[in-house]
Structure formats: structure tokens, C-alpha cells
Design goal:
The protein is α/β, with parallel strands linked by helices. It has one domain (5-217): Ribonuclease Z/Hydroxyacylglutathione hydrolase-like (Metallo-beta-lactamase, Chain A), CATH 3.60.15.10. The chain has seven helices and 14 strands. It has helices spanning 46-53, 68-71, 74-80, 93-99, 174-185, 204-207, 211-217, and strands at residues 5-17, 20-32, 36-40, 57-62, 86-88, 107-108, 114-117, 120-126, 135-139, 152-156, 159-160, 163-164, 193-196, 202-203. It has a six-stranded mixed beta sheet with strand order 1-2-3-4-5-6. A six-stranded mixed beta sheet has the order 7-8-9-10-13-14. A two-stranded antiparallel ribbon has the order 11-12. The longest helix is centred in the C-terminal third of the chain and has 12 residues, at 174-185. The mean pLDDT is 96.
Length: 219
């Protein structure tokens, strides 16, 4: 049986919000084996993502949220991947429409929903705050391996190495984001690896001691 693996692609482009543009690097994560793969956040340019996919079947294009820099290659990747379904939480469809006036995502995401790829079940966590429809995806570790692997959570812009995702912009809420992080992420095992939408990965154990600092500073 082919072994499940996590692969990483970085693309660069503009994040546009509230009339401003920012140059950003985005992390794209691929979960799968030699035969099929789930793509997390099709950002900026479909070409390097399709290169990483190779000839494998794309079982889905999972959008952690609807900001343009996380979805602006989704439709091109869908076309290049034999109409692989684009998955988005319905609360972020208004953000989706800022990018795609004439196209829709295919599969609505919801809290507790499970997805399957390469024989593994992943669980959707609704974590609003950075955006109303922000979601994370929890991948259980391989407990049967000779050296047990930790769980992994693909967090988009919910939680970063060093703090919560940005708020203070349209459709964001710092209190909601803190509540999401505390309720859905900081209840996970401290060894859980957090694969972020931008920048370096971190762990739940590295971030959770700083919760009260973030609350005190307000961002």
C-alpha cells in the first residue's frame, strides 16, 4: 500500500482586501499517496500545483477560506484536474464572488464533516474569525507506525507561528477568532503540527501558552 504523505508548494502573488494590495507568499499543501491527492488552498498559480500533483487524481480542492490569495488558482486547477470539486464553507461565498463572478464552488464544507483521501479520513473544523467561513482540516497521525506521528492541522490563516490570523478587516472578528482557536485548536494534543497558510509551520504546544498575551494585545 502506498504511504500517505504531505507535500508543500509555495506560490506568490497579491492579497487584495478593502482596496489595498499586499504581496504575499502562500503555502499550498497536498495530502495523498502515489495515486490520489487532496489540494489545500490553490493560490495564485495553478501550474506549480499541477506539477506537484503529477498524474495523480485530485479528489478535491479544499479552500481554508475565501480570500483571493487562497482561491485565485482554484478554478484553473479544477479545469486542469478533470473537474476536481472545489470545497468552500458557504459563509465565505461572498468572498468567493469577489474573485469569481461567473463560477461557483462545488462542495459546501461544514464543521465535523469528514473527507477521504488515500484511505485516510480527515475532519473539517469550522474556525471563523479571520473570515466567517474559515475552516481547518485535521489529519490524524499514523499511530501504528514504528515511531508514532503527531496529528497535523492545516489551518489556513486561523493560526500562525507566533499568533492568530489577522483581523481588523472586513468580515473579520478578533473575538470570534480567539474563540475558534481556543475551542477547536487548543483542545488538540500539544504535539499537533500546524501547517499554516503563510510562513513556517508550528505546533499547538508552541502557541497555546501565549493565548492570554494575544488577548491582552488585541491581535
Amino acid at each position: 500500500m502506498a504511504q500517505l504523505r504531505v507535500e508543500h508548494v509555495v506560490t506568490s502573488g497579491l492579497f487584495s482586501i478593502d482596496g489595498e494590495d499586499f504581496q504575499v507568499d502562500n503555502n499550498i499543501w497536498l495530502i495523498g499517496d502515489d495515486h490520489e491527492v487532496l489540494v489545500i488552498d490553490a493560490a495564485h498559480d495553478a501550474a506549480p500545483i499541477t506539477d506537484a500533483v503529477g498524474g495523480r487524481k485530485v479528489v478535491g480542492i479544499f479552500c481554508t477560506h475565501g480570500h483571493n490569495d487562497h482561491i485565485n488558482a482554484a478554478c484553473a486547477l479544477r479545469t486542469a484536474s478533470n473537474d476536481a470539486p472545489i470545497m468552500l464553507h458557504p459563509a465565505d461565498e461572498m468572498l468567493w464572488r469577489h474573485v469569481y463572478a461567473d463560477a461557483l464552488p462545488d462542495t459546501p464544507l461544514s464543521h465535523g464533516q469528514t473527507l477521504r483521501v488515500a484511505g485516510t479520513t480527515l475532519r473539517v473544523l469550522h474556525t471563523p474569525g479571520h473570515s466567517p467561513g474559515g475552516v481547518c482540516l485535521l489529519l490524524p497521525g499514523e499511530i501504528a507506525a514504528p515511531t508514532p506521528e503527531p496529528d497535523r492541522v492545516f489551518g489556513g490563516d486561523t493560526l500562525f507561528n507566533g499568533g492568530p490570523g489577522a483581523t481588523g478587516r472586513s468580515n473579520s472578528s478578533f473575538p470570534a477568532l480567539i474563540d475558534s482557536i481556543e475551542r477547536e485548536l487548543f483542545t488538540l494534543d500539544g504535539r499537533t503540527i500546524v501547517h499554516t497558510g503563510h510562513g513556517d509551520s508550528t505546533t499547538i504546544g508552541a502557541e497555546s501558552p501565549h493565548l492570554q498575551e494575544w488577548i491582552a494585545r488585541g491581535h
